[in-house]
Amino acid sequence: MAEKKPFRQIARPFVVDGPPGVSVRDRIKGLTVDDEKVLRAVGAHMGRLASHDLARRVRDGLDHSTDTWAARKRELTALSSSRWAGSVTSNTHDQWGLSRRVQHAHLQSLDAGIGMLRHRLSLPVGEKGFRGRPGGCRSKREWFHKSRRLAILEDRYEQLRAEREAGRVSLVRGSRRLFNQRHNLAAAGRTADQWRAEWEASRWFLTADGESGKRFGNETIRVTPDGEISIRLPAPLAGLANAKHGRYVLAAKVSFPHRGEEWRDRVTENRAVAYRIHLDVVRGRWYLDASWTRKALPVVPLATLRAGGLVGVDMNADHLAAWRLAPHGNPVGRPRRFDYDLTGSAGHRDAQLRHGLTRLLHWAEAAGVQAVAIEDLDFTDSTTREKHGRRKRFRQLISGIPTGKLRARLVSMCAEAGIGVIAVDPAYTSMWGVEHWQEPLTTKNRRTSRHAAAAVAIGRRALGHRIRRRTAPPHDDQSDRRGHRTAQARPGSRGREETRPRVPGPRTRSVQPDAERTRGTSASKTVRDAPVGRAWVQDSLLLTV
Predict the structure, then answer these.
(1) For labelling, which of 128, 238, 243, 477 has a CA lying 20 to 30 Å from the CA of 95?
(2) What is the DSSP letter of 402?
(3) Given this model, what pLDDT does residue 395 score?
């Protein structure tokens, strides 16, 4: 008999922190030919400096220190300005740190794949899996190919581990997607000139960090409250200035329709605002992004968010399944489904996510709840083909669920709507939701899906209740008519159900009757036992012949 796999420990639910910053975008309209010429020159010049600085940072590897950082910044200052140099080095360190984190995640993915392959190859050929663990290979041919793949992954893992220990990372300034498209322009639908224009624009550097206390919150790229944009030109391009102190003022203005008042309050008070200017080559449009750090919002206690109930949300590849739950863990009303289509371009996918989340939050606000419960999902160990074998469509389904983007969007949008987000452990929510809630919530007029049942399980775990329902009452008998164990447990009840209290008096016919009654189990029907003060009158119709 196969040994049962023990259930893993369930982590406690927690309140997700709000977004640390804000970013808004506006289109720069009305640029003249000279304006575009200056923007392209500044972007190309600072882009070359950023590329050289990133190459030096990669060569330094683990030998990086404050002295090497200061030396790089001094060299950049001579070719631009101290503030431009600070923005370049800061961006370089962010890119290098991101690459290190991605490298670590890749190592973990390879390690999980190697462990899964070793497990499958250690089993006899044809042995079936058990409790989510895959079985052995289906044939000797598959065993041979899996053993070769194991050798490839082990070699890859050793190379990557050696690179990480040496501090080497792989970076592409601009876009790795564009870098790979260069080798197959026909499949990408671009000509060589179109690709070159987009590649060069992606490598420009027109980013300036904000500074608190400085005029309008930024000395390098300054935007006044009425939308006027001016740029502090690097030293080699100072001859292109059209204003004092080596600055160039653009003819176009911005207004930031979204969060414009919040941005205007910051620049009026000279609080730090970071800016980024970039060109969309496909559309031929220039954009300005403004971002700033928000004050840490007060964290609402978990008990407060649970007090008014919540909405449990199950994230899927093509829709969000949601159900409202009362504070005691009972589903209220009908389940809701919010569809989205994640095919097409990145802009279309992002718009679909925002539209689905907007409908979800509008419904939550109308329901009067204070929190939304989601799963703390991470599919890093479930997307490899070593675990699911030939189930390619299932692997694609898991990979298609936008867990990271959806969670980031949901957290930011909930912060604006004043709704808290509770993250729960995703272990067994789908399985136990189907087992305990799908059939009881299905009626003649409503078919409950497994995703809606999972939403109920997620909501109950966020509320602090067990996912399972109360045990069913016993069958009909003379002492219990299906009236026991049907009430929902109170929030403070964490123990098992106790035995029924002892009711005084005889309960079976084997008990001797009392002196005053002849039958202890049935009510008397005689006139002598009628209550005092109530007269008994014989019906006259019964005396007729």
Answers:
(1) 238
(2) -
(3) 53
3-state secondary structure of 306: helix
CB 57 within 8 A of CB 64: yes
What is the end-to-end Cα distance of the chain in Å, rounded? Answer: 81
Task: Say if CB 249 and CB 243 are below 8 A apart.
Answer: yes
CA-wise closest residue to 306 among 463, 113, 496, 196: 463
Distance between CA atoms of residues 323 and 250, nearest Å: 51
Q: Give CA–CA dist 222/216, Å, rounded.
A: 7
Task: Write the DSSP string, 407-472.
Answer: HHHHHHHHHHHT-EEEEE--TTHHHHHIIIIITTT--SS----HHHHHHHHHHHHHHT--SSPPPP
Running DSSP on this structure, what letter comes out for residue 243? B
Candidates 374, 391, 373; CA nearest to 382 is 391
Region at 464 (left for phi over 0; alpha for psi -120 to 50; beta for the rest)? left
3 state SS for 184-209: CHHHHCCCHHHHHHHHHHHCCCCEEC
Enclosing H/E stretch for 146: helix 140-166
132-136, 158-162, 432-436: the lowest-pLDDT one: 132-136
Radius of gyration of the chain measured on its C-alpha atoms: 34
pLDDT digits (tens, 9 = 90+) for 64-117: 999 999 999 999 999 999 999 999 999 999 999 999 999 999 999 899 889 989
Residue type present at position 318: D
Contact 406, 338 (CB under 8 A): no
pLDDT at 470: 64
* Distance (Å, whole) CA 152 – CA 150: 5
In this predicted model, what pLDDT tens digit does every residue of 16-65 receive, in sequence order?
888 888 899 999 999 999 999 999 999 999 999 999 999 999 999 998 99
Nearest CA among 272, 267, 274, 227 for reference residue 250: 227
Q: Cα 522–526–532 angle (5° rounding)?
A: 100
Q: Residue 514 carries which DSSP code?
A: P
Which pTM value belongs to this model? 0.73
Q: How many CB atoms lie within 10 A of CB 156?
A: 15
Collapsed DSSP state (helix, strand, coil) of residue 17: coil
Cα(23)–Cα(225) distance, integer angstroms = 17
Single-letter amino acid, residue 390:
R
| pLDDT for 2 | 46
Check residue 8 and report its DSSP letter: P
Q: Who's near 16: CB < 8 A, 6+ residues apart?
A: 407, 411, 420, 421, 422, 423
